[in-house]
Amino acid sequence: MIARRKIYEIHKRIHQKKTVAFMSIFLLSTGVLAGCSNKNSDQATVDSSELKPYGKYKKPIEFTVGRITVEADKFPVGANVSENPATEFLKKETNITAKVAWETSDFNTKFSLSLADGKMPDVMVVNEVQFQQLIDNDMIADLSPIYEKTASETLKKNYDSYDGWALDSAKRDGKLYDLPQTSLYYEQAITWICKDWLDKVNFPVPKTIDELEKAAKAFVDNKLGR
């Protein structure tokens, strides 16, 4: 990840209203999976001592997901959204199981229906309007204490690199209600560079935006890739 602060400033200038991503896979509140709170659901309790980054829960934890249908999803034979190598790894390492509550091509309509009947999945990616609707209807959990206990140092450093702006966008009255998405417009958070090109122009692996720009200019000046 290169020069997050500079990238953040660019994003801020381009688009002030950001889409809020509600993703809290590893964040568990005492008794309830952090995320949408279904008042009629059973609450699986966990020992507070288990609330730590990369910890494995003694008792199985299951959360449900509401998602938009993604035609590009590709799975190995016999695998699906709920059962695949990623979910198997999650189960093995954390004793957490993710189940798809519903999947739809019309997420906005499905969200509105779920909001009306009070039966929300535990975890979803929502936009800013939907995020506020969950708060107004008391259907979303405060992640503040859980974030402090369970978020890894890497995750905290990534959010801190935005000078407080990212997490502030997810707070209301000082309470943290979601984990905002920091990659906008589907761009990648990793830049791939051909090592043989760097060797040809005798340039080190870039660590900042300025170095990346210089490397790109060197590639063009030396007509690499033509």
Question: What would you note in describing this structure?
Answer:
This protein has two domains: 4-176, 3-Layer(aba) Sandwich (D-Maltodextrin-Binding Protein, domain 2), CATH 3.40.190; 191-226, no CATH class. The protein is built from nine helices and four strands; from the N terminus they run αβαβαααααββαα. It has helices at residues 4-14, 85-94, 107-117, 128-136, 144-150, 153-160, 165-168, 195-200, 209-221; strands at 61-68, 96-104, 171-172, 175-176. Strands 1-2 form a two-stranded parallel ribbon. It has a two-stranded antiparallel sheet with strand order 3-4. The longest helix has 13 residues, at 209-221.
Physical arrangement of strands within the biggest beta sheet? 1-2
Number of domains: 2
How many β-strand stretches? 4
Which second-level CATH architecture of the largest domain applies? 3-Layer(aba) Sandwich
CATH topology of the largest domain: D-Maltodextrin-Binding Protein, domain 2
Q: Major sheet: size, sense and barrel closure? A: 2 strands, parallel
Helix content: 25-40%
How much is the average pLDDT? 76
Order of SSEs: HEHEHHHHHEEHH
Helix- and strand-based class? alpha+beta
- The span between the termini is 28 Å
SS summary, helix count: 9
